[in-house]
Automatic annotation (TrEMBL):
The chain crosses the membrane at residues 6-22. This is Sec-independent protein translocase protein TatA. The Tat system comprises two distinct complexes: a TatABC complex, containing multiple copies of TatA, TatB and TatC subunits, and a separate TatA complex, containing only TatA subunits. Substrates initially bind to the TatABC complex, which probably triggers association of the separate TatA complex to form the active translocon. Part of the twin-arginine translocation (Tat) system that transports large folded proteins containing a characteristic twin-arginine motif in their signal peptide across membranes. TatA could form the protein-conducting channel of the Tat system. Pfam families: TatA_B_E (PF02416). Residues 42-57, 65-81 have a biased composition (Basic and acidic residues). It is a single-pass membrane protein. Keywords: Cell membrane, Membrane, Protein transport, Translocation, Transmembrane, Transmembrane helix, Transport. Residues 42-81 are annotated as: Disordered. Its main location: membrane. Gene3D superfamilies: 1.20.5.3310. The keyword Amino-acid biosynthesis does not apply.
């Protein structure tokens, strides 16, 4: 009492097959499987991205003030003192 028996599950399965047809159920199953596969792939790709170091958008080389004074940007123009 209260539980679903095997006969009730069988009747429900027959009704579902009659309503939707086997072809539509097969397509639904393959679509569900491919979406789960895609979700797992996206989750594993995200984990791999976390393991890799982040790349910088530009090349930032920090220079000290002394380096900037000894290495002028444009050598054609004289430096002001």
């Amino acid at each position: 009492m209260g539980g679903i028996s095997i006969w009730q599950l069988l009747i429900i399965a027959v009704i579902v097959v009659l309503l939707f047809g086997t072809n539509k159920l097969r397509n639904l199953g393959s679509d569900l499987g491919s979406s789960i596969r895609g979700f797992k792939k996206a989750m594993s790709d995200e984990d791999e991205k976390k393991d890799l170091p982040k790349e910088q958008d530009a090349d930032f080389n920090a220079k000290t003030l002394a380096d900037k004074q000894h290495d002028p940007v444009n050598k054609d123009q004289p430096r002001d003192k």
